[in-house]
Write a structure and sequence with these properties.
With 509 residues, the protein is of the alpha/beta class. It is built from 14 helices and 21 strands. 49% of the residues are buried. The model has no long low-confidence stretch (mean pLDDT 97).
């Protein structure tokens, strides 16, 4: 199997990971200094949210130079040191690639808006307004308002599916395709192992840019746009990665609701290697609903030979412990499920510490999408400023002095050690990191499934979502390999689950 099929990936939002130079903003040296922690935890790779030069209107997702590191994070030499040290520790590095748009300060857009005769005019979407005035169509932007901004200098509107500072690239232009392929090659030549592609489904657009139908007129396009012109573009992107040795990988963010709609973005094994499946990210805390979403995903993806990607938290959504009402027990059970499903799980930095979102006073809010809470800084030590060189750019999450990595590393009953045990169990079991998946019959309120490896390795996972203990009917002899409560590991399992409890069990006498 390629490395990314058996891996666990760990997302780092660099601004919030660790500051080492005293400006209160996390940096690449902070990431490099914690590679030993990541190896100890047991992750196989890291996805870095954008580190490119940027005016930071959308905190790096508005790129002004794709081939350089923003000084707030460091420089190219510092990135090379991080990459080299990560590879020494057998940790892969994925960069966040933003193909749909650039910053309005990117030289390409500056040139494009300089005159209607610019050679790069068609690199972006410039259009006249409707007869009688107004923007060219009724599209809405992701952060509110219309998706078009008027440019006085050239007397046309330009398209931006996000902020006005993030104009959309026109991938129907061969120059854009060549330039963005060149960006990929620049980083691949430096040795990166792959990319996470931001809202990559949006790069394919109908050249006519038609109105959205009335029922979608008030909805931004991110969750509904699904145009077939994206697929030949993805095949071209895949060809770039496939021209490099070492199983370079592209995982795509495709924000379409149903797993069935994700399948075409894998192509015939010639488009995206993996596509994020957000089915569990917004699932209510009910075993039956989780089972439905997993079964639906398995049915769609397995039938197409597509490899699943699972996630519970990220930089765009409230942390899963926050979504579960602050319950650590629920967050532990969710981790037990995430790390034992078929597919590649992505962790979000800090979830292994059981962090909740920070409470952000209105005057400290800086994000246009109001996602500040889940981007709060990671605490590394007990005492303020918790291992950082200076007070950070956002407030700390709750309980930063007790949910810091240093304190939890000493507590073998902590959530941090649970993640470490789950990752170790996944690594040593072919059933867990590469085997098949099937749902098991279980009592109400319990999610249960079996994983089976090609070599006969076998595991079962039983997760009680309920508030009462439950007895599960088991016929074979099982030993508890991992318990989310820590109880009974290494002992025979009789089928009993405590309140909000999950176990990974292996055959045994």
């Amino acid at each position: 199997m390629p490395w990314w099929k058996t891996a666990v990936l760990y997302q780092i939002y660099p601004r919030s990971f660790l500051d080492t130079d005293g400006d209160g903003i996390g940096d690449l040296e902070g990431v490099r200094s914690k590679l030993g922690y990541l190896r100890w935890l047991g992750v196989d790779g890291v996805w870095l949210s954008p580190i490119y030069r940027s005016p930071m209107a959308d905190f790096g997702y508005d790129v002004s130079d794709h081939r350089d590191v923003d000084p707030v994070f460091g420089d190219l030499e510092g990135f090379d040191r991080l990459l080299g040290d990560a590879h020494v520790r057998d940790i892969k590095i994925l960069l966040d690639w933003v193909p749909n748009h650039t910053s309005d300060r990117h030289p390409w857009f500056v040139d494009s808006r300089s005159t209607r005769d610019s050679p790069r005019r068609d690199w972006y979407f410039w259009r006249d307004g409707r007869a009688g005035g107004g923007p060219p169509n009724n599209w809405r932007a992701a952060f509110g308002g219309g998706a078009w901004t008027w440019d006085d200098a050239t007397g046309q509107w330009y398209l931006h599916l996000f902020l006005p500072e993030q104009p959309d690239l026109n991938w129907a232009n061969a120059g854009v395709v060549e330039a963005m392929h060149g960006v990929l090659r620049f980083w691949l030549d430096r040795g990166v192992d792959g990319f996470r592609a931001d809202v990559v489904h949006l790069i394919g657009k109908d050249a006519a840019l038609p109105d959205q139908p009335p029922e979608l007129a008030e909805i931004d396009l991110v969750g509904v746009h699904d145009h077939p012109s994206a697929h030949p573009l993805l095949r071209g992107i895949r060809a770039v990665l496939d021209s490099y040795a070492g199983d370079r990988v592209m995982v795509g963010e495709v924000n379409l609701g149903s797993p069935r709609l994700l399948v075409p973005y894998y192509g015939a094994g010639d488009e995206l290697h993996m596509v994020f499946n957000f089915s569990l990210l917004w699932a209510p805390w009910e075993a039956a609903r989780w089972a439905e979403r997993i079964v639906e995903s398995e049915a769609a993806l397995a039938a197409a030979g597509a490899w699943p990607v699972w996630v519970l938290s990220n930089h765009d959504t409230p942390r899963h412990r926050t979504r579960y009402g602050g319950s650590e027990a629920r967050a532990r059970v969710a981790a037990g499920v995430l790390l034992t499903l078929r597919g590649t799980p992505f962790l979000y930095a800090g979830e292994e510490l059981g962090l909740c979102d920070a409470e952000i006073p209105e005057e400290r809010r800086v994000d246009p999408g109001r996602r500040d809470g889940c981007r709060a800084p990671i605490p590394w030590h007990e005492d303020p400023p918790h291992g950082w060189a200076a007070e950070p750019w956002l407030p700390w999450p709750p309980d930063a002095g007790t949910r810091d990595a240093g304190s939890l590393a000493w507590d073998e009953a902590s959530m941090l050690h649970l993640y470490r045990r789950l990752l170790a169990a996944r690594r040593r079991s072919p059933a867990l990191h590469a085997g098949s998946w099937r749902l098991l019959d279980a009592p109400a309120g319990v999610l249960a499934y079996e994983r089976l490896g090609d070599d006969g390795d076998r595991r079962q996972v039983w997760a009680n979502f309920g508030d009462d203990p439950v007895s599960c009917r088991v016929t074979d002899a099982w030993v508890v390999e991992v318990s989310t409560t820590g109880r009974g590991e290494g002992l025979a399992w009789d089928g009993t689950l405590g309140t909000t409890d999950a176990v990974v069990v292996r055959p045994g006498g």
